[in-house]
Structures are given as structure tokens and as C-alpha cells.
Write a structure and sequence with these properties.
The chain is built from 3 helices and 19 strands. With about 450 residues, it is mostly beta strands.
């Protein structure tokens, strides 16, 4: 079956469900409870059971700014790779089933509040670019418990992406450090994100040991050709503790410490990579200063230590013991009964997925939601993302790239079982480094429009 016919099949099925459900709820303003049925009913431990179908049009799937006229005259793309050129477009059909269970109610103990498992894959088909097809198998685990003054939380999100094992090629290395992220996420790999925390609450204070892991195991071929995207394995693991003082029952200030390591794979054909150790001192605030506002923030200095050079390895940084700034925050404001605003922010020293150098990663997300009726909602969002490589000392890796994203969407709930969503996003990739030739080759525009339906059981 071709990609286009597959897309048409799923879209026709989705629209049929939407029309049937819309007709059944005509004249109603609020979602109605499911009708009592003598048939099968979802058991209490089955928390999620749904399937979503999304049809999208992406007019620049490689987020590239390199038009064909910038290609070297004698350039040849490695066998199996695709040239990541400006304006390569495709219709994309994504099918997303989801099943989740929570076994804690079956154990009959109040100390274990959550013992959940979720499987939520995405099966994506690119009608105009078969190299970008992928199946992402996502497994989520959460364990939460409390016994007296002690509480415990563990969350793990494991993803295996079954995708192409050959990366794309940006001829002449004409690319944006941010733009390469989207096609990289479609390649074969394993990702793991884990957090664990144990908390003891005293009289007006608490202590919270914590640890986290961010892990990438890339499974794409390594080819030593300029412009080909050799993705390296990376991880960031850290542990430490936070001490908190309760200003009020709803608010606390914290003082924390983290010791961590970042690993960046060294390729066999290059002497460069930038693994490091770090220590962070963090001050923070968490709580609800007002009923309508929830805030979490931690900031502080990040003390780095990069390894010295050897006969077989070079760390390409200007300063091997720099002090960097680390910060992350989240704030949610319930402005009115129908309006909510969310802010996410993070800045930290991270490592290039293409190996060799570290960079400073900065992201700010602002999203707004308006409930027009009980069924109909509108979403607006903006993101500013920066990747600054000035701490590296390799001339070929000097760059300062930016991406601005603007999003608008609307969603409608036909019933307790069926909903639909329509979104549009615009990505603007921009170069912020002075003095480079043809800066437009690092810049791109991308329009992405998506329509989806979700059926819940």
C-alpha cells in the first residue's frame, strides 16, 4: 500500500468517526457522560486506552536553508543517505495508539499511590520522503508512594525509534545546529529519561535526595564525509539533594547540590570530543504564592571540568574549568476559569549530537489556552531556542543558531470518546554569528499544519 493511499484510508476513517460523533451530540454544549451499557466496560486499573490519527503537511522536513545552487559541483551524497535540501516537503500520516495501566489500587495498600505503565507508540509515514518513516515505541513508568513523613517518586520514559540507520547529508555542511534535531529524532536510536527522588518532611522543612539520567544511544552508520550527519552517543547523569524551608505551607525556598557527568562519544576518525564533570549549587523556589499561580524554579552556578588533551584525544574548548550558569523554571497561571498560561525555561551546558564540542542550550516556551466553550478550546504558543557554540575552539564548529516557533491550534471535544485538533506552526531558523559567508544557508522557514482525531475507549 502506498503512503498516499494509507494516509487517505486513515483520514477517511477519522473523518467518518468525527461526523458520526458530531451528529450524535448536535445541540449539546457540554460533553455528556458515557451511556450505561451492558457490554464491556474499561476496568479501573486500565487508565488509558485510545488511538489517535494525525495527518500533517511539512514544507521543509529537514529544516534546511541550503538550496541546490550552494552544492559543491563535485559533491556526492554517501550511498543510502539523502540530501537534506531546502524545501523538501511531504504529507505525514501518524497513527498513535496508547494503553496505560495503574496497578496500585489492586495492591490494597495506601502507601503505594501509583504503579503505572504506559505504552504510547507513534507510527509515522512520510508519503514524499520514505527515508523519514519511523516507528517510535515509547514506554513510560511511574511509581509514587508515601509512608508517614517519607515520600518516593520514580519516573522513567524509554523510547526506541525504529527508523532509518543512515543519516541525512547537508551538502557542504550547510546547516543549522537546531535544524538538524528533527531529522535526527527520526533515526534509529534508544533514548531514556529518568528521575528519582526521595523526600522526608520535617516540621517546616524537608530534605530531598534526587538523581536524573538523560541518555542517547544512536544506531546510525558513521561515515567520514563532510556534511553527513554522524550522530554521537551522549548521556548526562547527576545526583544530589535539595534542602527546603517552608515559608508557608504552600511555599518553600530550597538550597541544592548536584554532582554530574556528561559523556560525548569520540568518533574513530576524529580526535575530538568534550565529556565533562560538573558540580552545581542551586537555589530555588517552589509552591503557590497565590491560588492561581504555581511556580518551580532552580538556578545557580555550574562548575565544569573538561579532561586534558592526550595523544589520542583532544578536548576542543577554550577553557577547561569554566563556570557556567544553570537555570530551569516552570510556572502555570490559571488566569480565569477559562484562561491558562504556562511558562517553561531552561539554560544549561550540553553537548553537540554531532560530536566534538559542547554548546550552551537556551529554551523559553510560553503557551496560552482559552476554553471558548465546554467543548471548544484555542491554543497559542511561542518558543525561542538558542544554541551557542562559542565555548569551542574549532573553527569548523563556530556557530550561534536560533529558532523561533509560533503555534496556533484549536481543539473540539465531540463526546467523552472523541475529540479533534487542528494546529499550525511556523519555525524560523536564524543565524546569529557574524562574519560567515552565505549565512542564509544556516537559516530556514518551516510551515507545519496538522489535523488529528483521537478516539478514547
Amino acid at each position: 500500500m502506498t503512503g498516499q493511499s494509507l494516509a487517505g484510508k486513515y483520514l477517511t476513517f477519522a473523518l467518518g468517526l468525527a461526523l458520526v460523533s458530531a451528529a450524535s451530540v448536535c445541540g449539546q454544549d457540554e460533553p455528556q457522560p458515557a451511556a450505561v451499557s451492558s457490554g464491556w466496560e474499561k476496568p479501573a486499573w486500565l487508565t488509558d486506552l485510545s488511538i489517535g490519527v494525525k495527518e500533517s503537511y511539512d514544507d521543509n522536513i529537514f529544516l534546511s536553508g541550503a538550496a541546490p545552487q550552494y552544492l559543491p559541483a563535485t559533491y556526492t551524497v554517501p550511498p543510502g543517505s539523502v540530501a537534506a535540501l531546502k524545501g523538501v516537503s511531504s504529507w505525514v500520516t501518524t497513527v498513535s495508539p496508547r494503553i496505560g495501566v495503574n496497578f496500585s489500587p489492586l495492591l490494597g495498600t495506601e502507601s503505594l499511590q501509583t504503579l503505572s505503565l504506559v505504552y504510547a507508540p507513534d507510527f509515522a509515514n512520510y508519503a514524499g520522503a520514505p527515508s523519514e518513516d519511523y516507528n517510535a515505541h515509547r514506554f513510560g513508568t511511574a511509581i509514587k508512594g508515601r509512608s508517614g513523613a517519607f515520600s518516593f517518586t520514580l519516573e522513567n520514559n524509554l523510547t526506541y525509534v525504529d527508523g532509518d540507520t543512515v543519516a541525512p547529508t547537508y551538502p557542504g555542511a550547510l546547516l543549522s545546529a537546531i535544524g538538524i534535531g528533527a531529522p535526527r529524532e527520526r533515526r534509529e536510536q534508544v533514548q531514556d529519561r529518568s528521575t528519582i527522588a526521595l523526600r522526608y518532611d520535617g516540621d517546616g522543612w524537608f530534605i530531598r535526595p534526587a538523581a536524573s539520567l538523560l541518555y542517547y544511544d544512536m544506531m546510525t552508520e558513521l561515515i567520514n564525509v563532510t556534511g553527513y550527519q554522524n550522530y554521537c552517543d551522549r548521556y548526562d547523569v547527576n545526583g544530589g539533594a535539595d534542602f527546603g524551608y517552608q515559608i508557608t505551607p504552600q511555599m518553600a525556598v530550597t538550597l541544592g547540590y548536584r554532582y554530574g557527568q556528561q559523556y560525548q562519544q569520540q568518533f574513530s576518525f576524529s580526535p575530538y570530543s568534550s565529556p565533562s564533570e560538573y558540580q552545581r549549587l542551586l537555589v530555588g523556589f517552589e509552591g503557590t504564592p497565590w491560588k492561581w499561580l504555581d511556580v518551580r524554579v532552580q538556578v545557580g552556578p555550574d562548575f565544569r571540568s573538561y579532561p586534558g588533551d592526550t595523544l589520542t584525544h583532544i578536548t576542543p574548548v577554550n577553557d577547561k574549568t569554566p563556570v557556567k550558569y544553570y537555570g530551569e523554571a516552570m510556572a502555570t497561571a490559571k488566569l480565569t476559569a477559562k484562561d491558562s498560561l504556562m511558562l517553561k525555561y531552561k539554560q544549561f551546558q550540553w553537548m553537540s549530537s554531532l560530536g566534538k564540542v559542547p554548546y550552551y542550550d537556551s529554551v523559553v516556551d510560553l503557551s496560552y489556552r482559552r476554553a471558548l466553550t465546554g467543548r471548544w478550546g484555542v491554543d497559542l504558543g511561542v518558543r525561542a531556542w538558542g544554541a551557542n557554540y562559542e565555548s569551542g575552539n574549532l573553527a569548523t564548529c563556530q556557530r550561534d543558531d536560533l529558532q523561533y516557533t509560533f503555534l496556533a491550534g484549536t481543539s473540539y471535544t465531540f463526546s467523552t470518546h472523541l475529540s479533534a485538533n487542528l494546529t499550525y506552526s511556523l519555525d524560523l531558523g536564524r543565524n546569529a554569528q557574524d562574519g560567515i559567508a552565505n549565512p542564509q544557508t544556516r537559516e530556514y522557514n518551516r510551515n507545519l499544519i496538522s489535523g488529528s482525531v483521537m478516539l478514547k475507549f
